Amino acid sequence: QVQLVESGGGSVQAGGSLRLSCATSGLTFGSYAMGWFRQAPGKERDIVASITASSDITLYAPSVKGRFTISRDNAQNTVCLQMNSLEPENTAVYYCAARRTGLTTYSSWGLGTQVTVSS
Q1: In the chain, which ranges are E strands?
Q2: Alpha helix locations (H) across 1-119?
Q3: Which of 8, 59, 86, 91 is the most buried (most CB within 10 A)?
């Protein structure tokens, strides 16, 4: 059974930092690209960052580029999202997701972790 469990969310003031982690089990982690998504109240879920299975390619939403960094540890089956210079607009539930290399759909999702940024 595939499980993705996010942690590290919380409340922070604007300009602060948080580091989200996603622990995975039940999948061959090294065969999956990983992504972080977020969903703000009343908005659709959108992608924040992604990383290929070998970490050779990382992609970011324009609004977070230069402030957020995605990384993974294939030995620990984890993926992280370092978020710096947080803004109130970054308030959302953040989800990690797994996509089998070669496929286009993220097939496994965590339950999410809340990030709240106050001004």
Answers
A1: 3-7, 10-13, 18-25, 32-39, 46-51, 58-60, 68-73, 78-83, 92-100, 108-109, 113-118
A2: none
A3: 86
